[in-house]
Amino acid sequence: MDVGDKFPDFVLLDEDGKEFDSRTLEGIRYVIYFYPKDGTAGCLREAQDFTANIKKFMVRNMPVIGVSKDSPESHRKFINKNGLMLKLLSDPDHVLLEAVGAWGKKMMYGKEVEGTIRSTFIVGKDGIVEAAWTKVKVDGHVDNVVATAASLVRKSVQ
């Protein structure tokens, strides 16, 4: 999945076990990020960084959605334990993860494994990817997403 691609439609369960249909996002620019596992150090830092900056996204009417293969119950515990202000979706069969290229072979502790490749996308009001980050390193990443989001909003206003 790259800039200019149509982001796939999806229906996944959220942290409350309710269906979340991407069609509810039509006409809204949004951030969607893919992460390996609730509660792990890097995933917690990334979720906390998005939460710390949530007002910067919401002032631009830009929801932030996280996706992992964890269960809705795991997501609910992750949110409650850490005070997260994010919508988290469960993709246990990694259908969306695979569709956007956020699932595949990666190196972990010197071994090749298959799993989630940390990735983030900004999807435009028309469903087209406006920005893409793959193989994300957590430190400083959310700052880059905030800056890009602000730039995209400015461009669309001009």
Give the secondary structure arrangement, pairings included.
Layout lengths: L10 E4 L4 E3 L8 E5 L6 H12 L1 H5 L5 E5 L3 H11 L4 E4 L4 H5 L3 E6 L2 E6 L2 E5 L5 E6 L6 H17 L1
Parallel strand pairs: 3-4, 4-5
Antiparallel strand pairs: 1-2, 1-5, 3-8, 6-7, 8-9
Give a written overview of the molecule.
The two termini are 27 Å apart. The protein has a single domain, classed as 3-Layer(aba) Sandwich (Glutaredoxin). It is α+β, with helices and mostly antiparallel strands and 158 residues long. It has helices at residues 41-52, 54-58, 72-82, 95-99, 141-157; strands at 11-14, 19-21, 30-34, 64-68, 87-90, 103-108, 111-116, 119-123, 129-134. The model has no long low-confidence stretch (mean pLDDT 94). The strands form two sheets. Strands 2-1-5-4-3-8-9 form a seven-stranded mixed sheet. The protein has a two-stranded antiparallel sheet with strand order 6-7.
Task: Write a brief structural summary.
The chain is of the alpha+beta class.
